[in-house]
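explain this chain.
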Amino acid sequence: MYKVSEILSYITDVAPLQWQESYDNSGLLIGDGNALVDKVLLTIDVTEKVVDEAIENSFHLIISHHPLIFRGLKNILTDSTMGRIISKAIKNDISIAAMHTNLDNSYLGVNKIFADTIGLKNLQILRPADAFKSNDTDLQVGSGMIGCLENEMSEYDFLNMIKEKLGTGALRHSEFLNKNIKTVAICGGSGSFLINDAKRYKADAYITADVKYHEFFDADNELLIIDAGHFETEQYTKQLFADIILKKNPKFAVQMSRVQTNSVHYFV
């Protein structure tokens, strides 16, 4: 058995909580850091079905990417989904933690596993964050990532590859520029704020999510902007959690939630 705080420290060693954005709410959100647990359930989002899964399988720790409690709560009532989730977690001694933008900002975090999935090499942070200091001078911190494909490909083939690798139902993108793709910038989740950074680094394409209509115009004939979906660009974070924990403690039991938490569905 291990303390909840010890398991969480495996991840915060790679992505300290001070690396999270000011608006975020990462860390232990429900429960007791001194509680003893023998396994963890990993998820992108904490839904009621995920908590039910934890209860049914005797998990007393859930680690998610997106924080369950993000905005202020004025009450906890069981006639609301949030109230039921919190009540069930407390009644069943389930601790819930989130590792969100602290993991987004780590070189070894969300964007690294996203980049590895689509085959990018020679990686570097797209927008380094001087405000975040690392004890390891070789570890970059900041938003997004940029790298290169081993072999350049056409825009059409590139989109097909991304769609297949991420398993998304559809891709939204800016106008084709009829040039090959070699240098690629990425940001898992909502990353339209980095479009100009991708252009500054002369990226041929920028993959992110939650791009608004008018933001596609920001491509300005300089690069291909691709909205691949919020969940889809962060889905491998569960595997990242598992890899980090097992590297620190190979004997600790980890399980990725079997609940599909993507809130967006496609009608094609």
User: Anything to note?
Assistant: Residues 155-166 form the longest helix (12 residues). The radius of gyration is 19 Å.
